[in-house]
Design the sequence.
């Protein structure tokens, strides 16, 4: 590994904390834009909670590794963000496409950070977070595919028997 590319654990954790708080802001913005399909829009609530949990994990790791030290976050998020790519009047499908791209970028970001440190515990934490971002992508992809196929239904439709098919005896 090239020593110039190594990041300290302190830097890694600070960068990750900033990235997660930025992800929360992105999903909160997207949730506000999601005016219809309340059941699908609730996925943004789940993702907000997940990103907040990631931030808590990173803050906890920071406090354990650097007790009593103040967290100094980078002035800007170092993760490539896509917030500028959200159209003002985005459709539900567009929101999910942007969210999927954000999760892909976050997974790549955490894997890249893991490659830039020699700290084994930091690498494990960063790989864990990369895997979580991959799972978020999967959740979003299922919803995106359903919207794209025209198979989207909310709980009211399901309760009324809309869009249901009997496949068994």
Sequence:
């Amino acid at each position: 590994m090239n020593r110039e590319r190594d990041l300290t654990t302190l830097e890694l954790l600070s960068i990750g904390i900033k990235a997660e708080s930025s992800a929360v802001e992105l999903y909160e913005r997207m949730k506000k834009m999601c005016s219809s399909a309340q059941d699908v829009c609730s996925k943004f609530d789940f993702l907000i909670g997940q990103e907040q949990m990631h931030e808590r994990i990173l803050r906890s790791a920071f406090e354990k590794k650097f007790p009593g030290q103040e967290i100094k976050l980078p002035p800007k998020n170092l993760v490539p963000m896509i917030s500028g790519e959200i159209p003002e009047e985005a459709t539900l499908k567009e929101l999910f496409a942007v969210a999927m791209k954000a999760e892909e970028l976050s997974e790549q970001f955490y894997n890249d950070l893991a490659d830039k440190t020699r700290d084994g515990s930091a690498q494990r934490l960063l790989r864990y977070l990369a895997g979580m971002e991959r799972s978020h992508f999967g959740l979003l992809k299922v919803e995106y595919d359903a919207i794209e196929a025209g198979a989207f239904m909310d709980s009211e439709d399901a309760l009324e028997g809309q869009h249901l098919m009997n496949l068994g005896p």
